[in-house]
Inverse folding.
């Protein structure tokens, strides 16, 4: 028997693409560890520390940055977000796959990481609705947001989509079930790569 090193499945896509749902389902079926990000923003109603995010004070976040504990971090809309190396490296070395739901800015930092374990494990995929009309429909949500808010979300989404060429794999969204089957199939295929197996 050969041991297997874990896969780091990095998932990006615009708001409304369904990427978070895919990641959580994969984790819920015990197919991968869902990497939980840190943030300095306040919890939203219903969010739980350690499940949705690790909620840190700005000082705690700064100290961890200075200590080199983050795999990637960024400031978005005045709040800091980041992924701790401890959320990833230990799992990979134990042969556990890790799934990361991350924006294009964070994804670029992970790709630039020089840690050989990260470089060997990394697989990146960009998820997006099949058409701009579908994206607009998803971002419009329940119809309670103003046209200005929806327009801003659309602009941000299109800016994210402009980075899709940086990713190895693309998933053009269909139904939830179709998306998940293709998403899981990618992970299963990557597990078969000979390079991921360590022979005694």
């Amino acid at each position: 028997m050969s041991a297997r090193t874990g896969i780091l499945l990095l998932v990006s896509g615009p708001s409304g693409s369904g990427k978070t749902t895919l990641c959580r389902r994969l984790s819920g079926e015990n197919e991968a560890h869902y990497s939980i990000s840190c943030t300095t923003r306040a919890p939203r109603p219903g969010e739980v520390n350690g499940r949705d995010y690790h909620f840190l004070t700005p000082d705690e976040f700064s100290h961890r940055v200075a200590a080199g504990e983050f795999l990637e971090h960024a400031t978005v809309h005045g709040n800091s977000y980041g992924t701790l190396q401890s959320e990833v490296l230990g799992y990979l070395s134990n042969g556990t796959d890790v799934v990361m739901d991350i924006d294009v800015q964070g994804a670029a930092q992970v790709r630039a990481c020089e840690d050989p374990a990260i470089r060997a494990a990394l697989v990146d995929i960009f998820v997006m609705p099949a058409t701009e009309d579908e994206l607009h429909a998803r971002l419009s949500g329940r119809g309670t947001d103003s046209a200005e808010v929806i327009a801003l979300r659309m602009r941000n989404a299109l800016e994210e989509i402009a980075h899709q060429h940086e990713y190895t794999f693309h998933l053009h969204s269909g139904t939830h079930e179709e998306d998940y089957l293709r998403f899981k199939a990618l992970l299963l295929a990557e597990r078969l790569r000979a390079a991921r197996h360590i022979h005694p």
